[in-house]
Amino acid sequence: MTEPIKTDVLIIGAGPVGLFAVFELGLLDIKAHLVDILDKIGGQCAELYPEKPIYDIPGVPFVTGQGLVDALMAQIKPFQPEFHLQEMVAEIEKIGDPLFRVTTDQGKVFEVKVVVVAAGGGSFQPKRPPIAGIEAYEDKSVFYAVRQMEKFRGRRLLVVGGGDSALDWTLNLHPLASEMTLLHRRDDFRAAPDSVNKMRTLVANEKLNLVIGQVMSLEGADGQVTAAHVKDSKGEMSTIACDAVLPFFGLTMKLGPVTNWGIDLEKDLITVDTAKFESSVPGIFAIGDINTYPGKLQLILCGFHEGALMAQAAHRYVYPDKKITFQYTTSSSSLQKKLGVK
Fold this sequence. Notes:
Elements: E1 5-6, E2 9-12, H1 16-27, E3 32-36, H2 43-47, E4 53-54, E5 63-64, H3 65-76, E6 82-85, E7 89-96, E8 99-104, E9 109-112, E10 114-117, E11 123-126, E12 156-160, H4 164-173, E13 179-184, H5 193-204, E14 209-212, E15 214-221, E16 224-231, E17 237-241, E18 244-247, E19 251-254, E20 265-266, E21 269-271, E22 284-286, E23 291-292, H6 300-318, H7 333-338
Parallel strand pairs: 1-9, 2-3, 2-10, 3-6, 10-22, 12-13, 12-18, 13-14, 21-23
Antiparallel strand pairs: 4-5, 7-8, 8-9, 11-19, 15-16, 16-17, 20-21
Helix pairs in contact: 1-3, 1-6, 4-5
């Protein structure tokens, strides 16, 4: 078995609520690691609406989704949290009192005293393209995420999509690929202008193939794709030879493995008490949009409040013989020292 990573708390979800939980736990000398299925920190704010304005963060009249994430990252910097991205928690096993063994879909193992589920409405999972038989190629030669770039060195790559993820990975992987093709249904991209400009420069210099059309079917055997059959806007068919296909059709929210963790659920949400935001399993907490209780509002500011109370309750699992002395950051020299305040 993989050597476990030992820490006080594992937070599942690196969105704003999970990030602020790091702050509240850190004030109590509780060390946290975070796991997130996305390839970036920030959850929905970073992935779905980085430039969308948010107006209901207390004391902040206006901030973008990414701006909020950046501010939270600066706020928790003194506590040096460790992030494990592009991983999904697959299994949680109780092995002590208190002690959990948590395993991700990538085989990483954690041993922690507390688990905090801050996964929003669930885990982001890629949307599968409407291509018949694509399941036979998934995780063999069709990939919805890039976890190891070296895996694609020397291969003929076909990236499908027109958003930031498609353009970013096209630009990152093209130096490794023996041949790179970007396919999108129209010659109009939703990605950052700088990325689009770089892509078009590569196309103009004949270092990248740009094809306008849609994948209708895949050709191959035993999970290994050899070609994609493409239809253009005029209905004409063509074939693109490829060894790997990377479709980026966006993300969808699914509850995922949470249903197998032995936690009481109500309409696909984790039921919690409102004093500690603890689930039906002692030591497993849920904060943010993933939980439910009477009067619940799905607001970021409510998740922040839940994180503060969760941290107070988690303290008794991490330090069962230590009493909490409540302090304010405005007046406590010890808390200010932790925050690096001069």
